[in-house]
From TrEMBL:
UniProt key word Transmembrane helix: yes
InterPro entries: Put_HupE_UreJ
Transmembrane segments: 78-101, 107-132, 153-171, 183-208, 220-243
Protein's recorded name: HupE/UreJ family protein
Source species taxonomy: Bacteria, Pseudomonadati, Pseudomonadota, Alphaproteobacteria, Hyphomicrobiales
A Pfam family matched in the record: HupE_UreJ_2
Species this protein is from: Georhizobium profundi
Signal peptide: 1-41
Length: 244
C-alpha cells in the first residue's frame, strides 16, 4: 500500500475545526436530499418482479446485483475511502478483493441460512465503516492513540458487515427457493460487476484529481466530508430504528 508522505498534509488535530465547515455543508446537502438517501432500500418494482418469478433467472439477478451496488451510496463511499490513498493497481486489487471476499461470504451465507439482521442496525454499522475509513485516511488513529489499525483486516471485516447489508436486502426480495443458489451466485456476480463499474468511475475521477495540485490540498477536507456523510448515514439508520 502506497501512502502519501503525511496523511492529512501533516496537519494537527486543531486544524480539524476549520474543515467542519465543509463537513456541515455536506451534512446540509445530505439532509436536503434525505428522501433520495432513504430510497436505498429495494424498490417496489424490483421486489414485485422477483416475487413473481421462480426457477433459475440468472440475467435478472445479475442486473439486480449490479444495480444494487451502483446505487448503493454507502458501499461506494466506503470503496472510495479504501482506495483514496492507493496508487498502485496491485494494491487496489488486494484491498478490493478483500472487500469482495468479505461481502460475498456473508451475503451468500446470510441468505442461504436465512440469517436476518435488522436492516437499520446493519446499515448503521455500514455508515460507521465510512466514518472509520475517513478517520483512517486523516491519520486520526495514529494521532489519537499512537496506533495504526491493520487496514487490510479492517477492509475484510467491514466487507463482512457490508455483505450482511446485501443479504438483508436480498431477503426483502422474498426469493423463491426454486433456483435459490444459482440466483444468489448470479446476484453476487452482478454485485461484483457493479463494484467494478463504480470502481472504474472512481479511479478515472481520482486519476485526474491526483494529477492536479489541489489533491493534497483538499484531500483532508474531502475525508472530513466523507466522515460527515458516514455520520449522517448512521444517524438516519439509528433514527429509523427507533421510529420503526
Amino acid at each position: 500500500m502506497t501512502r502519501p508522505p503525511s496523511r492529512g498534509g501533516g496537519r494537527t488535530l486543531p486544524a480539524f475545526a476549520p474543515h467542519l465547515t465543509t463537513g456541515l455543508i455536506a451534512l446540509g446537502l445530505m439532509l436536503a436530499f434525505a428522501s433520495s438517501a432513504l430510497a436505498h432500500a429495494v424498490t417496489a418494482g424490483d421486489q414485485g418482479y422477483i416475487q413473481e418469478i421462480s426457477g433459475v433467472n440468472l440475467i435478472p439477478f445479475i442486473y439486480l446485483g449490479a444495480k444494487h451496488m451502483v446505487t448503493g451510496y454507502d458501499h461506494i463511499l466506503f470503496l472510495l475511502g479504501v482506495i483514496f490513498f492507493l496508487y498502485r493497481m496491485q494494491h487496489i486489487a488486494i484491498y478490493v478483493t478483500l472487500f469482495a471476499i468479505g461481502h460475498s461470504t456473508t451475503m451468500l451465507l446470510g441468505v442461504y441460512f436465512n440469517i436476518g439482521i435488522n436492516s437499520y442496525i446493519i446499515d448503521a454499522i455500514i455508515g460507521l465503516s465510512v466514518v472509520y475509513k475517513a478517520l483512517d485516511n486523516m491519520g486520526a488513529y495514529q494521532r489519537w492513540f499512537g496506533f495504526q489499525p491493520n487496514t487490510k483486516a479492517a477492509t475484510l471485516i467491514f466487507g463482512l458487515f457490508h455483505g450482511f447489508g446485501l443479504s438483508t436486502k436480498i431477503l426483502e426480495y422474498d426469493i423463491a427457493p426454486d433456483g435459490l443458489v444459482p440466483n444468489l451466485l448470479a446476484f453476487n456476480v452482478g454485485v461484483e460487476i457493479g463494484q467494478l463499474l463504480a470502481l472504474g468511475a472512481i479511479l478515472i475521477v481520482m486519476g485526474f484529481w491526483r494529477r492536479s495540485s489541489s489533491f493534497f490540498r483538499h484531500a483532508y477536507t474531502a475525508n472530513v466530508a466523507m466522515m460527515t456523510a458516514g455520520f449522517v448515514l448512521f444517524g438516519y439508520q439509528v433514527a429509523g430504528y427507533f421510529v420503526s
